[in-house]
Amino acid sequence: FDSVAILTSGGDSPGMNPAIRALTRAAFNSGISHVYGINRGYSGLINNDIQKMTSRSVTNIVQRGGTVLKSARCLEFKEPNVRQDAAKILRDRGIEALFVIGGDGSMTGAHLFTEETGIPVIGLPGTIDNDIPGSDDTIGFDTAVNTALEAIDKIRDTAQSHERLFLVEVMGRNSGFIATQVGIACGAEMVVVPEYDFDLRELCLTLAQRRATGQGSSGIIVVAEGKDPGLTNRIAYQLEEQGQNPRICILGHIQRGGSPSGHDRMLASCLGASAVSYLLAGYNDIMVGVNQGSIVDIPLRRVITETKSLNRHLFDITTLLHK
Ligand code: F6P
Prior knowledge:
alpha/beta, EC 2.7.1.11, seven-stranded mixed β-sheet, 11 helices, binds 6-O-phosphono-beta-D-fructofuranose
């Protein structure tokens, strides 16, 4: 390979920059002569919004949040003819392979693109949601969890002062990985995730018992945003009906920003370096990921057809540690 390109796609995540840096530097240092950065994900690819990278263009980005290549969700890329046009754009520039950093939607695009055009693609899991099958971890998850924890620790101060219950909504439309980890680590009184039913009556009972035993009525309930945008409000309303006076705090996109944690910088750097090695070793149509601490390759077909399930034992810890 003499010429490769990189793009970041879908919702951004802290650690995309160290991944871009690692791919760029590893490519140059492995003898690849040309590295291109594609702006705004698949959108920039189909619009030929592509720039040449140098080893210096990724200087001083290892610690920066967001993605210097920008990101977008591109609906047009779902069309096969658009993917063919994109392949032509790469071929015309002499680009022989593509690295895609993104979440599940981006991996679907990556798989279809290589299957239909023959241009080799290697994926890197970049999403705060940690919901990518085949990999225990994704770039950005650790930072997002830490960002949410920092906010919740502050919320807990005021919750205790006012003996109030707070519903804190964290990201995760289809998955409760952030909510579960954040819930355990902040000592939440309850965690609500899309994967499992929750029993509001049981919560109200627990809260009443705590009040009766003089434990106060402050507390944190972590709610994963889920598919239903009104969920947190509905829970708050039901709690009000049970005599509580809850407050809602939606952490939202704060979780997607910020300087990547040490863990995410390491993960992104190691996955980026490995992705280049896999490409040079002849691998294609794979995503690099982590399995029990080791870097592995996972066929993209598997990534896009399987679902990653939330570990029930881990989730149960959210209730096991209550007073
Ligand atoms: O996939 C990452 C994610 O941050 C989800 O947790 C969230 O539901 C979604 O993106 C929000 O996307 P957008 O920024 O496009 O509204």
